[in-house]
Amino acid sequence: MTHVEHGFGPVWNRESRVLVLGSMPSPKSRQAGFYFMNPHNRFWPVMEALFDRQIGPSIAERRSFLLETGLALWDVIASCDIQGAQDASIRNALANDLRPLLSASAIGHVFVSGATATRLYRQLIQPQLNEAGLAVPMTPLPSTSPANARMSLEALRQAYRPIMLALED
């Protein structure tokens, strides 16, 4: 078990309309300093399928895609104890504070990727938002992690379609 600090902040701007949250970046993502950088994670292929466009492998291309499409990206957890990239091993999680980001942007919907991230969002973040009077709908999504290999890319694309609907609102 290793204590891990998130290490990098959210990708967003004032025009961001949808926030997608993971749990905690994997060791490969932390090493790269950006989200979903494990080549076996299917987040970026799902985004390419959903938006019907090539995104490119560089951090600059991925960041640009997010900002152009109105997506913001961050994680539920600011720090925790974790074994490798195993969400099931997460202990002592401290949440990121979403209130400043939600207050300073056009984000009207939050999507949370994975069961652990969803549970921790409901446990740690939702009470903060309720207390601050920030009523932003949240939709849980399946994880794009290699640990969720039972879902095909097409099934993940279908599961992530509500993001497109939220961007159209």
TrEMBL record:
Pfam families referenced in this protein's UniProt entry, alphabetically: UDG
Recorded superkingdom: Bacteria
Matches recorded under InterPro entries: Hypoxan-DNA_Glyclase, Uracil-DNA_glycosylase-like, Uracil-DNA_glycosylase-like_sf
Annotated Uracil-DNA glycosylase-like domain residues: 13-153
Protein name in the entry: DNA-deoxyinosine glycosylase
NCBIfam families referenced in this protein's UniProt entry, alphabetically: hypoxanDNAglyco
